Amino acid sequence: VTIREQTQVAIIGAGPAGLLLAHLLSIGGIESVVVEARSREYCEARQRAGVLEAATVRLLHDAGLGGRLASEGMECDGIYLQFGGERHHVDLRSLTARPITFYAQTEVVKDLIAARVAAGQSPRFGVTGTEADLTDADRPVLRYTDMAGSRHEVACEALAGCDGFHGVCRAAVPPAVLGETSMQYPYAWLGVLAKVPPSADQAVYAIHDRGFALHSMRTPEISRLYLQVPAGERAEAWPDDRIWAELHTRLAMPGQEMGTGPVLEKAVVGMRCMAVSSMRYRRLFLAGDAAHIVPPTGAKGLNLAAGDVALLATSLIRMLRDRQPDLAENYSALRLLQAWEAMSIACQMTCMLHVPADEDRFAVPLQFAQLRHLVSSPVALRAFAEHYAGPVSLEFDPGPAGAFAA
Ligand SMILES: Cc1cc2nc3c(=O)[nH]c(=O)nc-3n(C[C@H](O)[C@H](O)[C@H](O)COP(=O)(O)OP(=O)(O)OC[C@H]3O[C@@H](n4cnc5c(N)ncnc54)[C@H](O)[C@@H]3O)c2cc1C
Question: What is the pLDDT of residue 320?
Fold first, then answer.
């Protein structure tokens, strides 16, 4: 038996993009259904991003999601770039007035799920057999099987593909329309979550001749650390003492002590870029990692996903509530501009800070020339800071009828 339902927007994926979209749509009076392949516990525990740009923080506050973020988020003035035995400060606050905030993606997701549950609109977790049917150009259909084994068919006015890199929505778009391009780096990141207070007051991006290292943080007690490793490396090849020895070597600075502590989690993350040429097909709109993957070096992925759904929510509210489809028609073009801007700084940082796998002897002096120019030219430093700090604001506007206030 198939259970037939209707909603205005069907959202596939309860990552940051899908959950935030559902929340913003509800502010504009638009009803939605969110389906998610994983369990709530899995989504809330998945370790990923942790750097929020100022515009993302502002959107979360304005959308009434800023309670824990205000008390537990760690606002930081900037970042450090470390090379050639020196640590250079990039003061985002003074250069751009846009500091960054450390607040783990796990916590963003917990806050968003709690908000949906409190509104009586819990995402439907643990679904299987998700299908995005775009046969009828104006009336898409979402199909899925719930945890009890019942098949559902949800007729909607718009479908949001927020199902990440491995989801099903991109495959529902004809390849010639989708126009996907991608690129894989020859190295990866070993990501480590450790129970040790951060050893620096701000994130440290370090290039060393043994490879890149990043010292970052989640809370005053938990550090987030990354090491450049060859692509295809296994996390098991890295026992804890090897991790700490390598981190100490790559991040060493005279007079700066780095603590050690229990490793809570470690995993290897591939470094890739991917972008589609169209984030819309008929009434399917792609957002977040389903539409673009940027290498994690620029800390852009989560922030780009927030920017996508801010504009997508505004577009869908105008289209479905106010019957004005103009913004929805331009959604893809507008967001692809932002995605490529983020891609450019993420790729620039990736190339500038990682030791090339093939020991390209030409690339290394170029990296140091770029880094020296960056920290010695006020104009270059400001341009870099502008890029890293992200946009001034995100484009969410529910219109006069929307209750957009914390
Ligand atoms: C190690 C690492 C570090 C990172 N660090 C940063 C950082 O510091 N700053 C930053 O901004 N970004 C960072 N990112 C990127 C950031 O985590 C992602 O960009 C972000 O998760 C994108 O959110 P999303 O909702 O688009 O996709 P996802 O978080 O991938 O969510 C997609 C959801 O869709 C669900 N799904 C998939 N297929 C289906 C299906 N068929 N049916 C139903 N549900 C489905 C998935 O289970 C998932 O829950 C990092 C990523 C990694 C991996």
Answer: 97
